[in-house]
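Let's study my pick:
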Amino acid sequence: MKSDRVGIGRTGTLVLWIVALLACISAVGGELVAKNVNVRVLERTGDKLFDQTLNKPGALEGVPKLSSTTPMSITFDVETDNKEAAELDQAFVSLRNPTTGNEVGVVAKKTKRGSYRMDLTRKTFRTHFSGSPGTYNAALVLGSFSSGGVFYELGDIRIAGAGKKKRQEEQGASRYGPKPEIHHQFAEAQKTGSAVVSLAFTALVAAPLAGLVGAWIRLGVNGANLKKEAAGSVAFVGLVAAYVVLAGAYWMGVKLFPTLAYALVLAPPTYLAGQYALSRRIQGNIDSSRQQT
């Protein structure tokens, strides 16, 4: 048998039929004998909770209740009555719940000639036993077409349920059954202030700029002198205007740190343009005063 685990379901008599069939077709060789049957239960960390070697069928007792966190392993050797290691065509551990009739067979893998091992892993537990707790009758079902078959009873093993059967059924109904109607409620629009307040704030922000231009006019600023150094003056005024635009962008929603980064980028050319335009303006005044004298 090649698969790692087989679910036999509720056909408990199938095991007896298999053993009987193998016994009937046995033609040569002696009968099979199971020896060194060892049952071990481990913690998730690998520490042993239970370890017993059976010296006769049905001698298993005191096994702690199994769960998904306490895996169980069963190892055994198989010989013929001639004391020769037997090669089995079928070897699995049968776990049957006498109350529900549920029966599961877990395949035992060959470790070497005549030696086999069955591991009841967490995945096997969750697949077959998490929703079916109770006491199970454990037995070895061994068969060989050349040496017949044997049913070796181990004893009773208690298996704890995961307590999720009802939850899984509810989840299955919720997943595949009708879904509740979804009522979507859109978020209400946020209340904003009066437009008068916004306009008044805008006027207050623009007032200093208007005051600056008025002060220039009142002081008699002569814009014609800018023509004497057109390149530097235009660059300086343009960069100052860029600062004004950046301030407006910050007010409209640009974050503080991007605004500071843009301001740092504008700072060096603004300084150089202003310095160049001012020095050229001063040099022009000196030249004009020399010509007049």
Q: What stands out?
A: The two ends are 120 Å apart (CA to CA).
